[in-house]
Amino acid sequence: MGPEDLKVSLRKRVYEFGEKTAYVIYPEEFAVGLEHNLFHVLSQEDRGDGTIVTKMTFEGKMFLCFTEKD
Asked: Which of 11, 26, 34, 66 is 20 to 30 A from 53, alpha carbon to alpha carbon?
């Protein structure tokens, strides 16, 4: 997936789910977005259960990415 495809996919997700506090983004999408500077990362939280939650914005919408700790 390229950066333009990712933008379209995220916009579609926001449209399909309607106005929400936050939307989920997959780790693969997160990696592409970071590589192309599409996101503004706000924070990362280690939940202590092997999961890291990354909070970011894309076009003013909040997205959350859940990844396993290495």
From this structure: 11
